[in-house]
Amino acid sequence: MQNDSGRVSLLIQALTRENLAKAWKRVKANAGSAGADGLTVRQTAEHLKVHWPRLKEELREGRYRPAPVRRVQIPKAGGAMRELGIPTVTDRLIQQALLQVLQPLIDPTFSEHSYGFRPGRRAHDAVCRAQQYVQAGYRTVVDVDLEKFFDRVNHDVLMDRLGRRIADQAVLRLVRRYLQAGIMVHGVVQERYEGTPQGGPLSPLLANVLLDEVDRELERRGHRFVRYADDCNVYVRSQRAGERVMAALRTLYGRLRLKVNEAKSAVASAFGRKFLGYCLWRTSRGEVKRAVAEPAMRTFRQRVRQVTRRSGGRGMAQVAQELRKFVPGWKAYFHLAQTPRVMRELDEWLRHRLRALQLKQWKRGSTVYRELRALGADPLLAARLAAQGGRWWGSSGRGLNLVLTVERFDRLGVPRLS
């Protein structure tokens, strides 16, 4: 299948054996749950051994119809829920194959101010660029949040913008079918007329295709800004300038049939305003530094409390194992924070929780005394701690740290933040 210029079509490139093998490797590595067909990654592999020739022919001839996505909801910080649409593993494979062909063509056309879901760019890069703008004196931020962005994307507007970048009608037709695939809720398929549900490999690229138009207009007007997916921060020198930019953004997003979430958007001081989990603060010398935003700190503490709750009935080895599932990842993401004291305090608080948990697990006073002595505690210290009964948190402070040391927790495999 060739286009008018004689080049092999993008769809045929996506369906080559080499590209599909690469796509399957990525889908398999990402794992994830089953889609509406109920097939896991392993089960889909067996299914495709029999059915892939037919599916490939349907794709080549334009007859393929994607399956509905399975709707799931996951909690967000603050108690709200985020809706995801999980495609079948087969559709994840096809979308990933398309992404691998489209992204090298489209991504280089995006604004340099866009950081979300792009090769070689990370959230850390966006945070550092924001810091540079604020350090340069642009200390008022126009913080724009779009209302239910992934759920509100207008299909016609998106397909028009995508059609300006690629001319392959077979690919455009397939992408539209993915946009229009229904949503399965409690076994019932609901039709979809707008939105590109989070959960499919193509959704982030399509989001950038749509939002790049606003990026280009901000560039044309000479603004300093960073965008990560649907989070856009514009940095200006005054409140008045910020209000003008906010009004302009409402109009620009309105042309794309998107709506600014007024409750979450603001023109405010750049200091203390969270962006991608970070916030900025200013030292007495006027230097702008990075810190973990308070909501992210609360989420961390909430997770640790859940793992180290004293009614869980789990041993210390199991608790350490659960901490290893999320603390290293949290640390890796927030290692840019220029607040070592805060990280040390979080470490101390975490170990305080573990000491209280250990005392609770020893329970009776005689057991507490015996365990402490076995660890080399001074008899007077062991007797004092044993006599304090159920005051686990108060007893786990000064003194106990000489017995249940940092090194002991290291040997258990408890990860450190600092």
Strand order of the largest sheet: 2-1-4-5
The amount of beta strand, in percent, is 5-15%
Distance between the termini: 57 Å
Helix content, binned percent: 40-55%
Low confidence ranges: none
Report on this model:
The chain has helices at residues 10-14, 17-30, 41-61, 89-106, 123-135, 149-152, 155-163, 169-180, 203-220, 239-255, 294-307, 316-333, 340-362, 365-374, 379-387, 392-395, 406-412, and strands at residues 69-75, 81-86, 140-145, 183-185, 188-190, 224-228, 231-236, 266-269, 278-282, 288-292. The protein has 418 residues and is an alpha+beta fold. Strands 2-1-4-5 form a four-stranded mixed sheet, with no helix packed on it. A four-stranded antiparallel sheet has the order 6-7-3-8, sandwiched between helices. A hairpin with a 2-residue loop joins strand 4 (183-185) and strand 5. Helix 7 (155-163) packs antiparallel against helix 8 (169-180) and helix 14 runs antiparallel to helix 15 (379-387). The mean pLDDT is 89.
